Amino acid sequence: MTEDKKDKKDIKATKPKGKRLKPKKPKIPRQPMPEQEPKERIHNFNEVPYGFSIETAMIEAARCIQCKKPVCIDGCPVEINIPAFLLAIKEGDFEKSIKIMKNDNALPAICGRVCPQEDQCEKLCVIGIKGKPVAIGRLERFIADWERKNMEISIPEIAPSTGKKVAVVGAGPAGLTVAGELARLGHDVTIFEALHKPGGVLIYGIPEFRLPKAIVMAEVDYVKKLGVKIVYNAVIGKYLTLDELFNEEGFHAIFIGVGAGLPYFMNIPGENLNGVYSANEYLTRANLMKAYDFPNYDTPIMRSKKVAVIGGGNVAMDSARTALRLGAESVTVVYRRSRKEMPARDEELDHAEEEGVIFKLLTNPTQINGDDDNWVKSMTVLNMKLGEPDSSGRRRPVPIEGSEWDLEVDTVIVAIGNGANPLLTEATPELNLNKWGNIIADDETCLTSMMGVYAGGDIVIGAATVILAMGAGKRAYRAMHKYLMTL
Amino acid sequence: MNQILEKKIISEGVKDITISSQHIARKRKAGQFIILRIDEYGERIPMTIVDSDPKAGTIRLIFQEVGKSTYSLGDLEVGDEILDLVGPLGKPTHIENFGTVVCVGGGIGVAPVYPIAAAMKEAGNEVISIIGSRDKDLLIMEQEMSEVSDRLLITTDDGSYGLHGFVTNALQNLIDEGVKIDLCVAIGPVVMMGAVSNLTKEFGIETVVSLNSIMVDGTGMCGCCRVTVGNKTQFVCVDGPEFDGHQVDFKELMMRQSAYLPQEKEAMDRYHKCKLERLAAQPGGK
Ligand SMILES: Cc1cc2nc3c(=O)[nH]c(=O)nc-3n(C[C@H](O)[C@H](O)[C@H](O)COP(=O)(O)OP(=O)(O)OC[C@H]3O[C@@H](n4cnc5c(N)ncnc54)[C@H](O)[C@@H]3O)c2cc1C
Ligand SMILES: Cc1cc2nc3c(=O)[nH]c(=O)nc-3n(C[C@H](O)[C@H](O)[C@H](O)COP(=O)(O)OP(=O)(O)OC[C@H]3O[C@@H](n4cnc5c(N)ncnc54)[C@H](O)[C@@H]3O)c2cc1C
Ligand code: SF4
Ligand code: SF4
Ligand code: FES
Predict the structure, then answer these.
(1) Whether the Cβ atoms of residue A269 and residue A378 lie closer than 8 Å to each other
(2) Ligand that lies nearest to the alpha carbon of residue A427, given by its number in the listed order
(3) CB-defined site of ligand 2, < 6 Å
């Protein structure tokens, strides 16, 4: 108790942004998360970390010193009241904790698992200055899992019907957030989703071993319980245009959350050989279509032995780890910069490494080579070195002349990023786009160049994160509610 | 939803089904397709919308049983429902009065060429159609094709009906006759589309082909359907399915179509085995 008080005082005296007094090294170490053994887990698709027990969660939550000026909140795009939800865990009042959480974040079970915490809330946590930061993300996951296990999902009060109809395009995190919030306010909300399942990247991209699909479905169920209708197999732009949604279907406002679903390729020779996949295709076959369970499920996927994955982000790690689980003997991640520049979360890199993924850093593919039947047999790569920093501040990789060598592989997965899918925007010339094809929307209101049409998430800011998509959803729903109430 | 209202067998292994789908029936245009998934375990497969009745809210598909998914589709009966139906997808055919349009359909390719021939006819074109198959029994839609064509030429590989030879022989004959062809639309097996494009290129006849690459989502999200057209990578589901036949890398397309042969065979063998077991278990079965 005295220790606690002293710590608190220390922190109080420090200015969050300016120079800090030396905080004490935290007494309780950050609690480890139990996980499936690497040897075992590469043979199954079950989730890797098991989650905190109640005891561990309470110990970890007690590491938070309840800062008067909780800087961690500044790092959270949806501004969760972090000290408050942690305090409630520490005190064992889990119901209270989840209530605090749900005030700001409707999808904690998802964010607790996939948020890049180390770059957001936990990066700023003062405990992290001297030791390891409070495990905010893991506690967020804990409290959400606790709720799912122990509580009837409670449906908040829903405002009386406003008689206003809202169409949401895309059932990813941005769309689900907008839909849920507007439904609570009494609007009649319908989501139109192109695929046969909801969740966006959460369902077709991020694999089961990182985000169990039952969790995504539980969150979607919650949104449905709020009264939101979902129409599947509805590709807006083809099935219905925005004009038709307004004029024929009688919607009063539209939110576009169609994500960044266009796979980029390298544009190197050999990219259309059999055995070359975009990460989107590979992951969609494996996750959405359940090709890992072929022939029980009809969708096939290649039975690769030697796989190369091009890229260094979460998508590349997900592809590499999926390939291992599908039985590949070796999986090599080929990335043109060094490990420090890899955009993937540390946890994902560590997990991939533990599982035996090989990293060829400072290496860039120049060509994919095929056999007579058009099948991949190797990939030619070039060694790189780091040169001067580029506009992003990262040191630019430059090729080392004459350093080509061949990596023997039968499968190549291209995971170098996704752009804006033009399907909807091509059908809607009234929408203003930037030069990359992203929809231009107001930062605060998410309003686009079309009256009554709002947009947010990856389609606006480019491939980013779940929590940023949700943050956009939050801003959009407030502006949309205001707009709807003026009609 | 997506209920099968009618089902006909129009030739060996070729089925013609009518499905209720209000929305797609109203929206679809010639040249567009749907993607369907039969049940929870199914894969997503593309099919051309052969015809639609916006009033009745129905669309018509004609398909050939070639593997697990198309056989299962063929085993569905009137009254059964298809779990997922997405569409209309792809860019519609560019329809205008070009003058004389030759529509070439080979094998099951007659089905997707039919709506295009009909639309071309309606736009005022003189439509000459060439349809071909291996033998007389495999020829489909002769009557319907003749209704939308000013002239209909038929070829069979074995000479059992019509001209003995390939559709390209009939096309060559037309060219030799001196018919001025303003546009050629060719749909069928990749080899056939390649052969037609080769021939028309020689005579400078603009040629449109409709490509049937393997697909997953059909919305431009996965890149599975990519083909090389004029040295550029294109996605068949959103940039096509129709492309300039003189620019398409047919060889690559054919190789890409065979990407899953071992798995397809495995799925098919398993399906046949299950079906035999099901039949045997039925009362009166052997
Ligand atoms: C493999 C992978 C791993 C990732 N890992 C992480 C991670 O660990 N942490 C993290 O924070 N972020 C991660 N991301 C990024 C994150 O998933 C996205 O930033 C986020 O999902 C964007 O949300 P969204 O709602 O904008 O779009 P999406 O999730 O992309 O959802 C868009 C939805 O709209 C639908 N749609 C598209 N076009 C149409 C149309 N015309 N009509 C109707 N519906 C349409 C799509 O089918 C989709 O369901 C990852 C992304 C990928 C691909
Ligand atoms: C735009 C388009 C329109 C089409 N229209 C018709 C039509 O009107 N009538 C018709 O009979 N067929 C049509 N097809 C082809 C049809 O989709 C395939 O025959 C079907 O997918 C085969 O599946 P299967 O499981 O029965 O056979 P499989 O044994 O799985 O495959 C047989 C062959 O079909 C192709 N194929 C397999 N899976 C797919 C897939 N997911 N997507 C596309 N092709 C695949 C491959 O080349 C494969 O070798 C069309 C294809 C496209 C792309
Ligand atoms: S939502 Fe993400 S950033 Fe916010 S507190 Fe949770 S883990 Fe941290
Ligand atoms: S989580 Fe860290 S920064 Fe936030 S209140 Fe607790 S100790 Fe302070
Ligand atoms: S089928 Fe996925 S992009 Fe065309």
Answers:
(1) no
(2) 1
(3) B 33, 43, 45-48, 62-64, 66-70, 108, 111-112, 212-215, 241, 257-258, 264, 268
Distances in whole angstroms, Cα of residue A107 to Cα of each of A233, A319, A475, B30: 24, 24, 16, 43
> What sign for the dihedral angle of Cα A443, A449, A453, A455?
negative
Q: In the structure encoding, which two tokens stand for residue B193, read together?
A: 């589309």
Decide if A442 contacts A456 (C-beta within 8 A): no
CA–chain centroid gap for A341, Å, is 19
pLDDT in tens, B3-40: 999 999 999 899 999 999 999 999 999 999 999 999 99
Q: Which of B62, B45, B57, B81 is nearest to B8 (CA)?
A: B62
pTM of the model: 0.92
Query: Is a pLDDT exceeding 60 seen at residue A296?
Result: yes
Using CA atoms, how far apart are residues A484 and A255, in angstroms rounded to an integer?
Answer: 12
What's the rounded Cα separation, in Å, for the pair A216 and B209? 41
Strand partners, A190: A167, A229
Range of the domain at A222: 165-260+419-484
* pLDDT beyond 50 at B56: yes
Angle between helices A82-90 and A136-150 (to 10 degrees): 60
Query: Which pLDDT score, from 0 to 100, does residue A22 have?
Result: 52
| pLDDT on residue A2 | 37
Q: Does B22 touch chain A (CB under 8 A)?
A: no
Q: All domains of chain B, ordered by start, with CATH? A: 2-89 (2.40.30.10), 100-257 (3.40.50.80)
How confident is the model over B259-285, as a mean pLDDT? 82
Beta strands in A264-416 (DSSP E): 276-278, 306-310, 330-334, 358-360, 363-370, 376-389, 395-399, 405-408, 411-414
* DSSP structure class, residue A293: G
A120 CB less than 6 Å from ligand 3? yes
Q: Is the CB of A76 under 6 A from ligand 3?
A: yes
Taken in order B104, B110, B114, B115, is the CA torsion positive or negative?
negative
Element (H, E) at B60: strand B58-64
Q: Of A366, A394, A416, which closes a domain?
A: A416
pLDDT at A330 over 70: yes
Cβ pair A263, B7 in contact under 8 A: no
CB atoms within 10 A of CB A143: 28
In terms of domains, do A385 and A300 share one? yes
Tell which of A416, A440, A458 closes a domain: A416
B261 interface with A at CB cutoff 8 Å:
no
B241 interface with A at CB cutoff 8 Å: no
Distance CA A412, CA A326 (A): 14
ipTM of this complex: 0.94
* Percent of residues, chain A, with pLDDT higher than 90: 78
Contact B108, B124 (CB under 8 A): no
Phi and psi at residue A330, to the nearest 5°? -145, 140
Report which residue type is found at A207. Answer: P
> How many residues in chain B?
286
| Residue A143 and residue A52 share a domain | yes
Same domain, A177 and A205: yes
B87–A239 C-beta distance less than 8 A: yes
Domain assignment present for A329: yes
pLDDT at A354 over 50: yes
Predicted local confidence at residue A14, as pLDDT? 42
Region B104-116 average pLDDT = 95
Q: Give the model's confidence band at A247: pLDDT under 50 very low, under 70 low, under 90 confident, else very high.
A: very high
Return the exposure string of A304-330: e unless at least 16 CB atoms fall within 10 Å of the residue's CB, then b. Answer: bebbbbbbbbbbbbbbbbbbbbbebeb
Peptide bond into B189 cis (omega under 30): no
- Beta-strand relationship, B58-64 and A411-414: unpaired
**How does DSSP classify residue A271?**
T
